[in-house]
């Protein structure tokens, strides 16, 4: 297992990315981590174990840089890391850099799996019933009904591989439970899903997302991105309210100290980092997108997700599914 | 001030609706509440003060009943309550019944304000910086860019009236902060908003919603409905996690007792019921939509919202704005 890690991408790069890569390399001695970075970052790597090597790049795609710039930055860390996968030097690429640049590099270098209209960003969402697969998280702000069906099909293969679910229960995000509810695309997608081979359980409303009574949640990239970030924002708002209320007087401060472990557990149970990075499903290779503010632990988990996709042969299974007679 | 209250609509109807209506009638002796309900519900009203009267209806629109049924139920509570507004017998209608039926009754009986393409459901969302105006919450799953501009314009008039904000800061919900981010409709709407007379502050991501760094948040009814319900679901999931973690052992139970008031405050600060019902803005009259599970307190607040809309002359101001030369 060889995994290319873009150590230049992300708000906490390169320090936290390197730390995450080293942590996983120490735990999994049979995996090789190829750290792609600017020569200036090399000294930060420190002493490297045998299963980590450094691959120099010439530039970095900025977080807010237009994706088009990628075509003039074929020496950038994300381009080179993805090219390692294309050339068979690595089996997966992991990055916390610009999502747009990473998607473009994956689509341009690895290409789409034959038969798939659009790749989709896929997360494992923390819910009251554990991690659940949700896609698309932002690759496709505008979709067609057929694309939502394909997202569901890819999500099912993914849930099968990474969550070990036999016949994943698929739901479609909408503004009402009834099949007639939704925007035009969603109503049409409902019909396609209901007529498909999938274990389709109908529409789900926003209220049902955190409950997690499903295995695969399908939506367009606009709604998916907004929902994910809303949950992130609300979690953080809630914890700042807890902090404020619990430090208001000595009694509450004492109480807060006693429930402290419980609060920490909740934070952990809701933490996206625990569930690692988000693969771009539908491209001919494994490309794992990490949150821009990923700390070492999130990177470590993302590398594990990459390894699961490789071991589970996600790409091969997808290609076979979408190209069956 | 005369307000028609549909006492038959909602999961907790008629008991909680009646209780809410009686509570507000007691606090505001100069307001008159017209309680519209089935004769069978009349005994539940008990002793009525002088400012409450009972208006009998012949049927009730079911929560899941197709909206089309309304045309054959012109004796239903929501139809009659809305007709009281049309006939000038009341100045506003409040209901926690079927949203679809209430919208249809409002559009058919009151009609749209001239110049407005589509009415929008508008909530006051609890955020870290107090209640903020958000629309559309579900009336329009599919929108055109021009409609989002009109939602913003109506939202600004509403924020001015109910929140007292002089020059409301408008933001557009999208999957990225940059103006190029969004689905096709959102990108086009961004251009319209930027070129408008509004105090437009650009796109906002889901993460920014609970922070509340805006006065009016505009989105299509599909995304808006999903976001609102996701927040509702996550709040409730978080409180069930808190309950679980805080009751795990005696130490934590003790701590929980000490922070109890703080938790209650947070619940209150996040409670939609505190902010009352959601007006359907853009119709020729005041129609306030309440959450299906509204308890008495939510109804009480919704009647207050109705009164603010009437006192602030929302309909008149909107008509003048959209019909200025």
Largest interface, by Cβ-Cβ below 8 angstroms: which chains and how many residues each? A-B, 63 and 63 residues
Mean pLDDT of chain A: 94
First-to-last CA distance of chain A:
32 Å
Element-level helix/strand string of chain A: EHEHEHEHEEHEHEEHHEEHH
> Tell me about the biggest sheet of chain A?
11 strands, mixed
Secondary-structure content class of chain A: alpha/beta
Query: DSSP helix count of chain A?
Result: 10
Strand order of the largest sheet of chain A: 3-2-1-4-11-10-5-6-9-7-8
* Share of helical residues of chain A: 40-55%
Task: Note down, in words, how this protein is organized.
Two copies of one chain form a homodimer. Chain A is α/β, with parallel strands linked by helices and 325 residues long. Chain A has ten helices and eleven strands. Chain A has an eleven-stranded mixed beta sheet, with helices on both faces. In chain A, helix 1 crosses helix 9. The longest helix of chain A is centred in the last third of the chain and has 26 residues, at 221-246. Chain A starts with a strand and ends with a helix. The model of chain A has no long low-confidence stretch (mean pLDDT 94). At the A-B interface, helix 7 and helix 8 of A face helix 7 and helix 8 of B.
Which helices and strands, and how do they pair?
The structure is a homodimer of 325-residue chains.
Chain A lengths: L1 E5 L8 H13 L4 E6 L4 H4 L6 E5 L20 H10 L5 E4 L3 H12 L9 E8 L2 E6 L9 H18 L6 E5 L10 H12 L3 E6 L11 E3 L2 H26 L3 H20 L8 E4 L4 E4 L6 H16 L2 H9 L3
Parallel strand pairs in A: 1-2, 1-4, 2-3, 4-11, 6-9, 7-8, 7-9
Antiparallel strand pairs in A: 5-6, 5-10, 10-11
Helix pairs in contact in A: 1-9, 3-4, 5-6
């Amino acid at each position: 297992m060889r995994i290319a890690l873009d150590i230049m991408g992300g708000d906490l790069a390169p320090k936290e990315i390197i730390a995450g890569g080293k942590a996983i390399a120490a735990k999994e001695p049979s995996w090789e981590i190829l750290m792609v970075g600017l020569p200036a970052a090399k000294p930060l790597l420190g002493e490297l174990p045998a299963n980590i090597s450094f691959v120099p790049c010439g530039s970095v795609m900025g977080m807010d840089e237009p994706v088009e710039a990628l075509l003039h930055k074929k020496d950038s860390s994300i381009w080179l890391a993805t090219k390692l996968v294309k050339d068979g030097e690595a089996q997966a690429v992991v990055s916390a850099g610009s999502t747009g640049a990473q998607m473009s590099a994956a689509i341009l270098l690895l290409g789409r799996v034959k038969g798939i209209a659009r790749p989709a960003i896929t997360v494992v969402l923390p819910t009251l019933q554990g991690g659940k697969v949700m896609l698309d998280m932002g690759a496709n702000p505008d979709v067609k009904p057929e694309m939502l069906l394909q997202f569901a099909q890819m999500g099912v293969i993914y849930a099968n591989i990474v969550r070990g679910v036999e016949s994943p229960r698929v739901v479609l995000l909408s503004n009402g439970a009834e099949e007639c509810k939704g925007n035009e695309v969603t109503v049409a997608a409902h019909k396609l899903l209901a007529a498909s081979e999938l274990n389709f359980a109908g529409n789900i409303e926003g209220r049902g997302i955190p409950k997690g009574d499903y295995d695969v949640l399908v939506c367009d990239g606009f709604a998916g991105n907004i929902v994910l970030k809303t949950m992130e924002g609300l979690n953080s708002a809630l914890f700042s309210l807890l902090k404020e209320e619990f430090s208001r007087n000595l009694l509450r401060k004492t109480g807060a100290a006693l429930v402290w472990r419980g609060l920490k557990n909740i934070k952990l149970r809701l933490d996206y980092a625990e569930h690692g990075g988000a693969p771009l499903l539908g491209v001919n290779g494994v490309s794992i997108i990490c949150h821009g503010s990923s700390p070492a632990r999130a990177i470590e988990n993302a590398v594990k997700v990459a390894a699961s996709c490789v071991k589970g042969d996600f790409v091969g299974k997808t290609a076979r599914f979408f190209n069956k007679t």
